[in-house]
Design brief:
With 479 residues, the protein is an alpha/beta fold. The protein has 15 helices and 26 strands. 37% of the residues lie in helices and 24% in strands. It has a 7-stranded mixed β-sheet with strand order 16-17-18-13-12-20-21, sandwiched between helices. Strands 9-8-7-10-11-24 form a 6-stranded mixed β-sheet, with helices on both faces. β17, α12 and β18 form a beta-alpha-beta unit. Bound molecules: nicotinamide-adenine-dinucleotide (NAD).
Amino acid sequence: MAADAPKLDFTTFHNVINNELVSTATTRHSINPANRQPNPEVPVSTQEDLDKAVAAAKKAFKAWSKTTFEERRTALCAFADALDANKDGFAKTLTMEQGKPLAQSYQEIGMATTWLRTIPTQTLPEEVLEDTEDRKIIHHHVPMGVACGIVPWNYPILLACGKIAPALYTGNTLIVKPSPFTPYCDLKLGELATKFFPPGVLQVLSGGDDLGPMMTAHPGIDKVSFTGSSMTGKKVMASCAATLKRVTLELGGNDPAIICEDVDIDAIIPKIAILSFLCSSQICMMIKRIYVHEKIYDQFLDAFVKFTKTLKSGEGNEPDVFFGPVQNSMQYEKVKDLFTSIEGEGLKPVLGGKIEESDGYFITPTVIDNPPEKSRVVTEEPFGPIVPFMKWSDEDDVIARANDTQMGLGSSVWSKDTERAARIARQLESGSVWVNSHFDVAPGVPFGGHKWSGIGMEWGITGLKAYCNPQTLWLKKSL
Ligand code: NAD
Protein backbone atom coordinates (compact mmCIF):
# COMPACT_ATOMS: atom_id res chain seq x y z
CA MET A 1 0.00 0.00 0.00
CA ALA A 2 1.23 3.51 -0.80
CA ALA A 3 2.55 5.05 2.42
CA ASP A 4 0.19 8.05 2.28
CA ALA A 5 -2.98 6.18 1.23
CA PRO A 6 -5.75 6.16 3.88
CA LYS A 7 -6.22 2.67 5.26
CA LEU A 8 -9.81 1.57 5.76
CA ASP A 9 -11.07 -0.70 8.48
CA PHE A 10 -13.70 -3.10 7.12
CA THR A 11 -15.43 -4.09 10.36
CA THR A 12 -17.82 -1.20 11.06
CA PHE A 13 -20.07 0.55 8.54
CA HIS A 14 -21.63 4.02 8.57
CA ASN A 15 -23.54 6.35 6.32
CA VAL A 16 -21.44 9.14 4.89
CA ILE A 17 -23.20 12.51 5.11
CA ASN A 18 -21.32 15.78 4.57
CA ASN A 19 -18.01 13.91 5.04
CA GLU A 20 -19.05 12.62 8.45
CA LEU A 21 -19.53 8.97 9.37
CA VAL A 22 -23.06 8.77 10.72
CA SER A 23 -24.92 5.98 12.53
CA THR A 24 -28.69 5.51 12.55
CA ALA A 25 -31.09 4.54 15.34
CA THR A 26 -32.06 1.39 13.48
CA THR A 27 -29.63 -0.96 11.77
CA ARG A 28 -29.91 -4.05 9.61
CA HIS A 29 -27.59 -6.57 8.01
CA SER A 30 -27.41 -8.67 4.90
CA ILE A 31 -26.53 -12.35 4.61
CA ASN A 32 -23.34 -13.93 3.31
CA PRO A 33 -24.80 -15.92 0.39
CA ALA A 34 -22.15 -18.65 0.58
CA ASN A 35 -23.12 -19.74 4.11
CA ARG A 36 -26.29 -17.78 5.03
CA GLN A 37 -24.49 -16.23 8.04
CA PRO A 38 -25.26 -12.61 8.99
CA ASN A 39 -22.90 -9.89 7.80
CA PRO A 40 -22.18 -6.82 10.01
CA GLU A 41 -24.83 -4.22 10.83
CA VAL A 42 -25.36 -1.24 8.50
CA PRO A 43 -27.45 1.93 8.82
CA VAL A 44 -31.12 2.15 7.93
CA SER A 45 -31.50 5.70 6.65
CA THR A 46 -34.61 7.74 7.37
CA GLN A 47 -36.21 10.61 5.47
CA GLU A 48 -34.33 12.93 7.84
CA ASP A 49 -30.96 11.39 6.90
CA LEU A 50 -31.81 11.80 3.24
CA ASP A 51 -32.90 15.41 3.74
CA LYS A 52 -29.57 16.15 5.45
CA ALA A 53 -27.61 14.54 2.61
CA VAL A 54 -29.59 16.41 -0.05
CA ALA A 55 -29.06 19.73 1.77
CA ALA A 56 -25.31 19.05 2.01
CA ALA A 57 -25.17 18.03 -1.66
CA LYS A 58 -27.01 21.17 -2.73
CA LYS A 59 -24.65 23.36 -0.71
CA ALA A 60 -21.57 21.56 -2.03
CA PHE A 61 -22.77 21.86 -5.62
CA LYS A 62 -22.27 25.64 -5.57
CA ALA A 63 -18.49 25.41 -5.18
CA TRP A 64 -17.89 21.97 -6.76
CA SER A 65 -19.61 22.93 -10.03
CA LYS A 66 -17.22 25.89 -10.30
CA THR A 67 -14.05 23.82 -9.97
CA THR A 68 -12.26 22.95 -13.21
CA PHE A 69 -12.39 19.62 -15.02
CA GLU A 70 -8.68 19.32 -14.24
CA GLU A 71 -9.25 19.70 -10.49
CA ARG A 72 -12.05 17.15 -10.55
CA ARG A 73 -9.94 14.74 -12.63
CA THR A 74 -7.11 14.99 -10.07
CA ALA A 75 -9.46 14.25 -7.18
CA LEU A 76 -11.02 11.25 -8.96
CA CYS A 77 -7.61 9.81 -9.82
CA ALA A 78 -6.40 10.18 -6.22
CA PHE A 79 -9.60 8.45 -5.08
CA ALA A 80 -8.91 5.63 -7.58
CA ASP A 81 -5.38 5.26 -6.21
CA ALA A 82 -6.74 4.95 -2.67
CA LEU A 83 -9.29 2.34 -3.78
CA ASP A 84 -6.45 0.44 -5.39
CA ALA A 85 -4.38 0.72 -2.21
CA ASN A 86 -7.28 -0.76 -0.20
CA LYS A 87 -8.15 -3.43 -2.76
CA ASP A 88 -7.46 -6.39 -0.47
CA GLY A 89 -10.04 -5.20 2.08
CA PHE A 90 -12.54 -4.31 -0.65
CA ALA A 91 -12.08 -7.67 -2.42
CA LYS A 92 -12.56 -9.66 0.77
CA THR A 93 -15.65 -7.64 1.69
CA LEU A 94 -17.08 -7.91 -1.83
CA THR A 95 -16.75 -11.69 -1.76
CA MET A 96 -18.36 -11.76 1.69
CA GLU A 97 -21.36 -9.67 0.66
CA GLN A 98 -21.81 -10.59 -3.01
CA GLY A 99 -20.57 -14.19 -3.03
CA LYS A 100 -18.43 -13.88 -6.14
CA PRO A 101 -15.05 -15.65 -6.17
CA LEU A 102 -12.17 -13.55 -4.84
CA ALA A 103 -10.47 -13.37 -8.26
CA GLN A 104 -13.68 -11.91 -9.73
CA SER A 105 -13.83 -9.40 -6.85
CA TYR A 106 -10.30 -8.21 -7.69
CA GLN A 107 -11.34 -8.01 -11.35
CA GLU A 108 -14.31 -5.80 -10.45
CA ILE A 109 -12.09 -3.48 -8.37
CA GLY A 110 -9.58 -3.30 -11.22
CA MET A 111 -12.35 -2.27 -13.59
CA ALA A 112 -13.66 0.31 -11.10
CA THR A 113 -10.25 2.01 -10.76
CA THR A 114 -9.87 2.03 -14.55
CA TRP A 115 -13.30 3.67 -14.87
CA LEU A 116 -12.46 6.28 -12.20
CA ARG A 117 -9.20 7.16 -13.95
CA THR A 118 -10.34 6.98 -17.57
CA ILE A 119 -13.76 8.64 -17.58
CA PRO A 120 -12.16 11.96 -16.52
CA THR A 121 -9.72 11.84 -19.45
CA GLN A 122 -12.60 12.63 -21.78
CA THR A 123 -13.59 16.16 -22.69
CA LEU A 124 -16.94 17.73 -23.34
CA PRO A 125 -16.12 20.27 -26.02
CA GLU A 126 -18.20 23.40 -26.55
CA GLU A 127 -19.76 23.60 -29.98
CA VAL A 128 -19.61 27.01 -31.69
CA LEU A 129 -22.69 27.08 -33.90
CA GLU A 130 -22.16 30.59 -35.24
CA ASP A 131 -19.43 33.20 -34.85
CA THR A 132 -20.02 36.40 -36.80
CA GLU A 133 -19.34 40.10 -36.24
CA ASP A 134 -22.74 40.39 -34.64
CA ARG A 135 -22.91 37.36 -32.35
CA LYS A 136 -21.53 34.08 -31.18
CA ILE A 137 -23.74 31.08 -30.47
CA ILE A 138 -22.34 28.31 -28.30
CA HIS A 139 -23.92 24.99 -27.41
CA HIS A 140 -22.44 23.43 -24.30
CA HIS A 141 -23.24 21.27 -21.27
CA VAL A 142 -23.66 22.34 -17.66
CA PRO A 143 -23.96 20.10 -14.57
CA MET A 144 -27.47 19.30 -13.36
CA GLY A 145 -27.02 19.67 -9.59
CA VAL A 146 -27.66 16.89 -7.09
CA ALA A 147 -27.60 13.43 -8.65
CA CYS A 148 -28.50 10.14 -7.07
CA GLY A 149 -27.01 6.79 -8.07
CA ILE A 150 -29.10 3.70 -7.32
CA VAL A 151 -26.97 0.57 -7.52
CA PRO A 152 -27.88 -3.16 -7.74
CA TRP A 153 -26.26 -6.09 -5.94
CA ASN A 154 -24.31 -7.81 -8.71
CA TYR A 155 -21.46 -5.31 -9.26
CA PRO A 156 -21.73 -2.89 -6.33
CA ILE A 157 -18.25 -1.37 -6.67
CA LEU A 158 -18.00 -1.04 -10.45
CA LEU A 159 -21.56 0.20 -10.89
CA ALA A 160 -21.17 2.77 -8.10
CA CYS A 161 -17.83 4.01 -9.53
CA GLY A 162 -19.38 4.00 -13.01
CA LYS A 163 -21.76 6.66 -11.67
CA ILE A 164 -19.34 8.47 -9.34
CA ALA A 165 -16.81 9.25 -12.09
CA PRO A 166 -19.11 10.89 -14.67
CA ALA A 167 -21.34 12.60 -12.09
CA LEU A 168 -18.48 14.23 -10.16
CA TYR A 169 -16.30 14.92 -13.20
CA THR A 170 -19.07 16.92 -14.85
CA GLY A 171 -19.44 19.02 -11.67
CA ASN A 172 -22.45 17.39 -10.01
CA THR A 173 -22.70 16.16 -6.45
CA LEU A 174 -23.85 12.58 -5.93
CA ILE A 175 -25.65 10.48 -3.33
CA VAL A 176 -25.07 6.76 -3.82
CA LYS A 177 -27.66 4.25 -2.65
CA PRO A 178 -26.42 0.66 -2.60
CA SER A 179 -28.74 -2.31 -2.74
CA PRO A 180 -29.80 -3.43 0.76
CA PHE A 181 -28.30 -6.82 -0.22
CA THR A 182 -24.79 -5.38 -0.82
CA PRO A 183 -24.25 -2.13 1.12
CA TYR A 184 -20.78 -2.82 2.56
CA CYS A 185 -18.29 -1.90 -0.16
CA ASP A 186 -20.33 1.10 -1.27
CA LEU A 187 -20.38 2.51 2.29
CA LYS A 188 -16.60 2.08 2.40
CA LEU A 189 -16.27 3.88 -0.96
CA GLY A 190 -18.12 6.79 0.66
CA GLU A 191 -15.82 6.70 3.69
CA LEU A 192 -12.75 6.71 1.44
CA ALA A 193 -14.19 9.61 -0.56
CA THR A 194 -14.16 11.87 2.53
CA LYS A 195 -10.38 12.12 2.09
CA PHE A 196 -10.58 13.35 -1.51
CA PHE A 197 -13.74 15.40 -2.04
CA PRO A 198 -15.20 18.39 -0.16
CA PRO A 199 -18.12 17.73 2.23
CA GLY A 200 -21.38 16.94 0.43
CA VAL A 201 -19.81 16.09 -2.95
CA LEU A 202 -20.04 12.30 -2.61
CA GLN A 203 -22.30 10.77 0.03
CA VAL A 204 -23.53 7.21 0.58
CA LEU A 205 -26.71 6.17 2.37
CA SER A 206 -27.72 2.62 3.09
CA GLY A 207 -31.25 1.65 3.94
CA GLY A 208 -34.19 -0.64 3.45
CA ASP A 209 -36.57 -1.01 0.53
CA ASP A 210 -38.12 2.40 1.22
CA LEU A 211 -34.94 4.44 0.63
CA GLY A 212 -34.95 4.20 -3.20
CA PRO A 213 -38.52 5.49 -3.50
CA MET A 214 -37.69 8.29 -1.01
CA MET A 215 -34.86 9.37 -3.28
CA THR A 216 -36.76 9.25 -6.56
CA ALA A 217 -39.52 11.34 -4.92
CA HIS A 218 -37.19 13.87 -3.27
CA PRO A 219 -37.70 17.37 -4.70
CA GLY A 220 -34.07 18.32 -4.01
CA ILE A 221 -32.62 15.65 -6.30
CA ASP A 222 -32.23 16.66 -9.94
CA LYS A 223 -31.05 13.49 -11.62
CA VAL A 224 -31.42 9.75 -10.98
CA SER A 225 -29.10 7.22 -12.50
CA PHE A 226 -30.64 3.84 -11.82
CA THR A 227 -29.22 0.37 -12.48
CA GLY A 228 -31.46 -2.57 -11.72
CA SER A 229 -34.38 -4.58 -13.01
CA SER A 230 -36.79 -3.44 -15.71
CA MET A 231 -39.70 -3.78 -13.29
CA THR A 232 -38.13 -1.41 -10.76
CA GLY A 233 -36.94 0.87 -13.59
CA LYS A 234 -40.56 1.53 -14.56
CA LYS A 235 -41.37 2.50 -10.95
CA VAL A 236 -38.33 4.79 -10.84
CA MET A 237 -39.37 6.55 -14.02
CA ALA A 238 -42.96 6.97 -12.82
CA SER A 239 -41.78 8.41 -9.52
CA CYS A 240 -39.26 10.76 -11.16
CA ALA A 241 -41.96 12.09 -13.49
CA ALA A 242 -43.63 13.91 -10.59
CA THR A 243 -40.64 16.25 -10.19
CA LEU A 244 -39.42 15.96 -13.82
CA LYS A 245 -36.07 14.55 -12.70
CA ARG A 246 -33.65 13.60 -15.45
CA VAL A 247 -33.36 9.81 -15.54
CA THR A 248 -30.95 7.24 -16.89
CA LEU A 249 -32.15 3.66 -16.63
CA GLU A 250 -29.79 0.68 -17.04
CA LEU A 251 -32.06 -2.33 -16.79
CA GLY A 252 -32.31 -6.06 -17.37
CA GLY A 253 -31.29 -8.09 -20.39
CA ASN A 254 -31.88 -11.37 -22.18
CA ASP A 255 -28.90 -11.34 -24.50
CA PRO A 256 -28.78 -13.73 -27.47
CA ALA A 257 -25.56 -15.08 -29.00
CA ILE A 258 -25.83 -16.31 -32.60
CA ILE A 259 -23.18 -18.91 -33.44
CA CYS A 260 -22.57 -19.48 -37.17
CA GLU A 261 -21.49 -22.83 -38.63
CA ASP A 262 -17.96 -21.68 -39.56
CA VAL A 263 -16.64 -20.98 -36.01
CA ASP A 264 -13.63 -22.72 -34.50
CA ILE A 265 -15.56 -24.61 -31.83
CA ASP A 266 -12.64 -25.44 -29.54
CA ALA A 267 -11.41 -21.85 -29.58
CA ILE A 268 -14.70 -20.20 -28.68
CA ILE A 269 -16.26 -22.67 -26.23
CA PRO A 270 -14.37 -21.36 -23.17
CA LYS A 271 -15.30 -17.78 -24.11
CA ILE A 272 -18.98 -18.56 -24.66
CA ALA A 273 -19.18 -20.54 -21.42
CA ILE A 274 -17.48 -17.86 -19.35
CA LEU A 275 -19.59 -15.15 -20.98
CA SER A 276 -22.70 -17.14 -20.02
CA PHE A 277 -21.71 -18.01 -16.47
CA LEU A 278 -19.46 -15.24 -15.08
CA CYS A 279 -20.67 -14.11 -11.62
CA SER A 280 -23.01 -17.13 -11.71
CA SER A 281 -24.78 -15.44 -14.64
CA GLN A 282 -25.81 -12.46 -12.47
CA ILE A 283 -24.70 -9.87 -15.00
CA CYS A 284 -27.17 -7.93 -17.07
CA MET A 285 -25.13 -8.56 -20.21
CA MET A 286 -24.30 -12.24 -19.88
CA ILE A 287 -25.23 -14.47 -22.81
CA LYS A 288 -28.67 -15.79 -21.85
CA ARG A 289 -29.84 -17.48 -25.10
CA ILE A 290 -27.43 -19.42 -27.33
CA TYR A 291 -28.51 -19.96 -30.95
CA VAL A 292 -26.18 -22.47 -32.66
CA HIS A 293 -26.29 -23.31 -36.37
CA GLU A 294 -27.81 -26.79 -36.77
CA LYS A 295 -24.76 -28.07 -38.70
CA ILE A 296 -22.57 -27.81 -35.58
CA TYR A 297 -25.25 -27.86 -32.86
CA ASP A 298 -24.57 -31.31 -31.37
CA GLN A 299 -20.81 -30.98 -31.39
CA PHE A 300 -20.99 -27.44 -29.93
CA LEU A 301 -23.39 -28.43 -27.16
CA ASP A 302 -21.24 -31.43 -26.18
CA ALA A 303 -18.10 -29.31 -26.03
CA PHE A 304 -19.90 -26.61 -24.01
CA VAL A 305 -21.13 -29.13 -21.44
CA LYS A 306 -17.70 -30.76 -21.22
CA PHE A 307 -16.02 -27.41 -20.60
CA THR A 308 -18.63 -26.25 -18.06
CA LYS A 309 -18.03 -29.43 -16.04
CA THR A 310 -14.44 -28.23 -15.47
CA LEU A 311 -15.63 -25.04 -13.72
CA LYS A 312 -15.60 -25.40 -9.94
CA SER A 313 -18.40 -24.19 -7.63
CA GLY A 314 -17.76 -23.09 -4.06
CA GLU A 315 -17.27 -20.38 -1.45
CA GLY A 316 -15.47 -17.44 -3.02
CA ASN A 317 -12.29 -17.70 -0.93
CA GLU A 318 -11.63 -21.32 -1.95
CA PRO A 319 -8.93 -21.64 -4.60
CA ASP A 320 -9.93 -21.91 -8.29
CA VAL A 321 -13.65 -21.39 -7.71
CA PHE A 322 -15.56 -20.07 -10.71
CA PHE A 323 -19.22 -20.44 -9.64
CA GLY A 324 -20.15 -18.67 -6.40
CA PRO A 325 -23.69 -18.72 -4.98
CA VAL A 326 -26.42 -16.44 -6.29
CA GLN A 327 -26.47 -13.32 -4.21
CA ASN A 328 -29.59 -13.48 -2.06
CA SER A 329 -32.55 -15.58 -0.97
CA MET A 330 -34.97 -13.69 -3.23
CA GLN A 331 -32.83 -14.45 -6.28
CA TYR A 332 -32.29 -18.04 -5.11
CA GLU A 333 -36.05 -18.59 -4.85
CA LYS A 334 -36.59 -16.96 -8.26
CA VAL A 335 -34.06 -19.27 -9.92
CA LYS A 336 -35.44 -22.28 -8.04
CA ASP A 337 -38.87 -21.41 -9.37
CA LEU A 338 -37.48 -21.21 -12.91
CA PHE A 339 -35.99 -24.68 -12.42
CA THR A 340 -39.51 -26.05 -11.82
CA SER A 341 -40.24 -25.22 -15.47
CA ILE A 342 -37.70 -27.87 -16.53
CA GLU A 343 -40.06 -30.61 -15.41
CA GLY A 344 -43.22 -28.55 -15.86
CA GLU A 345 -42.47 -27.78 -19.50
CA GLY A 346 -40.78 -31.11 -20.25
CA LEU A 347 -37.39 -29.53 -21.01
CA LYS A 348 -34.22 -31.56 -21.54
CA PRO A 349 -31.26 -30.66 -19.29
CA VAL A 350 -27.95 -31.97 -20.63
CA LEU A 351 -26.11 -30.65 -17.59
CA GLY A 352 -27.51 -30.09 -14.09
CA GLY A 353 -31.28 -29.65 -13.99
CA LYS A 354 -31.75 -30.07 -10.24
CA ILE A 355 -30.59 -27.76 -7.47
CA GLU A 356 -28.70 -29.57 -4.75
CA GLU A 357 -29.43 -28.07 -1.33
CA SER A 358 -26.35 -26.62 0.41
CA ASP A 359 -25.37 -24.17 3.15
CA GLY A 360 -25.45 -21.30 0.69
CA TYR A 361 -27.50 -20.09 -2.26
CA PHE A 362 -25.70 -22.34 -4.75
CA ILE A 363 -27.35 -23.23 -8.05
CA THR A 364 -26.19 -26.27 -10.02
CA PRO A 365 -24.96 -25.02 -13.43
CA THR A 366 -27.54 -26.13 -15.95
CA VAL A 367 -27.72 -26.36 -19.74
CA ILE A 368 -31.02 -26.96 -21.55
CA ASP A 369 -31.06 -28.67 -24.95
CA ASN A 370 -33.26 -26.97 -27.55
CA PRO A 371 -36.26 -25.80 -25.47
CA PRO A 372 -39.25 -24.25 -27.25
CA GLU A 373 -38.81 -20.55 -28.00
CA LYS A 374 -41.73 -19.70 -25.69
CA SER A 375 -40.44 -21.67 -22.68
CA ARG A 376 -39.68 -19.67 -19.54
CA VAL A 377 -35.97 -20.40 -19.65
CA VAL A 378 -35.81 -18.64 -23.03
CA THR A 379 -38.19 -15.74 -22.41
CA GLU A 380 -37.19 -14.82 -18.83
CA GLU A 381 -33.94 -13.32 -17.57
CA PRO A 382 -32.76 -16.12 -15.21
CA PHE A 383 -29.95 -14.17 -13.41
CA GLY A 384 -28.62 -17.59 -12.38
CA PRO A 385 -26.46 -20.24 -14.10
CA ILE A 386 -29.00 -21.86 -16.41
CA VAL A 387 -28.69 -21.38 -20.16
CA PRO A 388 -30.75 -22.63 -23.12
CA PHE A 389 -29.27 -23.78 -26.45
CA MET A 390 -31.42 -23.48 -29.58
CA LYS A 391 -30.87 -24.56 -33.21
CA TRP A 392 -31.05 -22.33 -36.26
CA SER A 393 -30.54 -22.70 -40.00
CA ASP A 394 -32.00 -19.60 -41.65
CA GLU A 395 -30.39 -16.21 -41.05
CA ASP A 396 -33.58 -14.12 -41.15
CA ASP A 397 -35.32 -16.58 -38.86
CA VAL A 398 -32.60 -16.50 -36.18
CA ILE A 399 -32.48 -12.70 -36.30
CA ALA A 400 -36.24 -12.57 -35.77
CA ARG A 401 -35.99 -15.02 -32.85
CA ALA A 402 -33.10 -13.12 -31.28
CA ASN A 403 -35.14 -9.90 -31.49
CA ASP A 404 -38.38 -11.45 -30.27
CA THR A 405 -38.09 -10.08 -26.72
CA GLN A 406 -38.91 -6.94 -24.76
CA MET A 407 -35.24 -6.82 -23.76
CA GLY A 408 -32.55 -5.14 -25.81
CA LEU A 409 -29.35 -4.82 -23.79
CA GLY A 410 -26.70 -6.77 -25.72
CA SER A 411 -26.33 -9.40 -28.42
CA SER A 412 -23.51 -11.08 -30.29
CA VAL A 413 -22.71 -12.89 -33.52
CA TRP A 414 -19.86 -15.37 -33.81
CA SER A 415 -18.39 -16.20 -37.24
CA LYS A 416 -15.11 -16.24 -39.17
CA ASP A 417 -16.92 -14.38 -41.94
CA THR A 418 -16.87 -10.96 -40.30
CA GLU A 419 -18.80 -9.32 -43.15
CA ARG A 420 -21.66 -11.75 -42.70
CA ALA A 421 -21.46 -11.35 -38.91
CA ALA A 422 -21.57 -7.56 -39.21
CA ARG A 423 -24.59 -7.83 -41.53
CA ILE A 424 -26.43 -9.90 -38.91
CA ALA A 425 -25.18 -7.64 -36.09
CA ARG A 426 -26.67 -4.54 -37.68
CA GLN A 427 -30.12 -6.15 -37.60
CA LEU A 428 -30.07 -6.94 -33.88
CA GLU A 429 -32.14 -4.75 -31.58
CA SER A 430 -29.91 -3.97 -28.59
CA GLY A 431 -27.79 -1.17 -27.17
CA SER A 432 -24.54 -3.11 -27.64
CA VAL A 433 -23.87 -5.63 -30.40
CA TRP A 434 -20.59 -7.52 -30.53
CA VAL A 435 -19.02 -9.61 -33.26
CA ASN A 436 -16.89 -12.49 -31.92
CA SER A 437 -17.14 -11.26 -28.33
CA HIS A 438 -19.77 -10.37 -25.75
CA PHE A 439 -19.78 -8.16 -22.64
CA ASP A 440 -16.88 -6.03 -23.85
CA VAL A 441 -17.26 -2.74 -21.99
CA ALA A 442 -14.95 0.26 -21.65
CA PRO A 443 -15.16 3.54 -19.75
CA GLY A 444 -14.96 5.57 -22.96
CA VAL A 445 -17.68 3.60 -24.73
CA PRO A 446 -21.37 4.38 -24.21
CA PHE A 447 -23.41 1.52 -22.81
CA GLY A 448 -27.16 1.14 -22.43
CA GLY A 449 -30.25 -0.70 -23.54
CA HIS A 450 -33.03 -0.58 -26.10
CA LYS A 451 -36.67 -1.42 -25.36
CA TRP A 452 -37.20 -2.54 -21.72
CA SER A 453 -33.43 -2.72 -21.12
CA GLY A 454 -33.16 0.97 -20.46
CA ILE A 455 -33.32 4.60 -21.34
CA GLY A 456 -30.22 6.65 -22.10
CA MET A 457 -26.64 5.52 -21.83
CA GLU A 458 -23.80 5.67 -19.33
CA TRP A 459 -20.03 6.03 -19.97
CA GLY A 460 -18.27 7.63 -22.89
CA ILE A 461 -19.07 11.21 -23.88
CA THR A 462 -22.75 10.24 -24.11
CA GLY A 463 -22.52 9.20 -20.47
CA LEU A 464 -20.98 12.53 -19.44
CA LYS A 465 -23.79 14.38 -21.21
CA ALA A 466 -26.30 12.27 -19.27
CA TYR A 467 -25.24 14.16 -16.12
CA CYS A 468 -25.56 17.57 -17.80
CA ASN A 469 -28.21 19.91 -19.04
CA PRO A 470 -27.55 21.10 -22.58
CA GLN A 471 -27.44 24.87 -22.83
CA THR A 472 -27.29 27.25 -25.77
CA LEU A 473 -25.55 30.60 -25.21
CA TRP A 474 -26.46 33.49 -27.50
CA LEU A 475 -23.69 36.09 -27.12
CA LYS A 476 -24.54 39.34 -28.87
CA LYS A 477 -21.37 41.34 -29.44
CA SER A 478 -22.99 44.77 -29.24
CA LEU A 479 -25.98 46.33 -27.54
P1 NAD B 1 -33.65 -4.14 -8.38
O1 NAD B 1 -34.38 -3.40 -9.44
O2 NAD B 1 -34.41 -5.00 -7.46
O3 NAD B 1 -32.85 -3.13 -7.44
C1 NAD B 1 -31.90 -2.21 -7.92
C2 NAD B 1 -31.76 -1.07 -6.95
O4 NAD B 1 -32.98 -0.34 -6.90
C3 NAD B 1 -31.47 -1.47 -5.51
O5 NAD B 1 -30.58 -0.54 -4.96
C4 NAD B 1 -32.84 -1.37 -4.85
O6 NAD B 1 -32.77 -1.17 -3.47
C5 NAD B 1 -33.41 -0.18 -5.56
N1 NAD B 1 -34.89 -0.10 -5.58
C6 NAD B 1 -35.77 -1.12 -5.41
N2 NAD B 1 -37.04 -0.64 -5.55
C7 NAD B 1 -36.92 0.68 -5.82
C8 NAD B 1 -37.88 1.72 -6.08
N3 NAD B 1 -39.20 1.48 -6.10
N4 NAD B 1 -37.42 2.96 -6.32
C9 NAD B 1 -36.09 3.22 -6.34
N5 NAD B 1 -35.14 2.28 -6.09
C10 NAD B 1 -35.56 1.03 -5.84
O7 NAD B 1 -32.51 -4.94 -9.16
P2 NAD B 1 -31.47 -5.98 -8.57
O8 NAD B 1 -32.25 -7.23 -8.29
O9 NAD B 1 -30.67 -5.33 -7.49
O10 NAD B 1 -30.50 -6.21 -9.81
C11 NAD B 1 -30.71 -7.18 -10.78
C12 NAD B 1 -31.28 -6.57 -12.04
O11 NAD B 1 -30.47 -5.47 -12.44
C13 NAD B 1 -31.26 -7.52 -13.23
O12 NAD B 1 -32.47 -7.41 -13.95
C14 NAD B 1 -30.10 -7.03 -14.07
O13 NAD B 1 -30.17 -7.37 -15.43
C15 NAD B 1 -30.16 -5.56 -13.83
N6 NAD B 1 -28.86 -4.95 -14.08
C16 NAD B 1 -28.74 -4.10 -15.12
C17 NAD B 1 -27.52 -3.54 -15.42
C18 NAD B 1 -27.36 -2.59 -16.56
O14 NAD B 1 -26.38 -1.87 -16.57
N7 NAD B 1 -28.24 -2.56 -17.53
C19 NAD B 1 -26.42 -3.84 -14.61
C20 NAD B 1 -26.58 -4.70 -13.55
C21 NAD B 1 -27.81 -5.24 -13.28
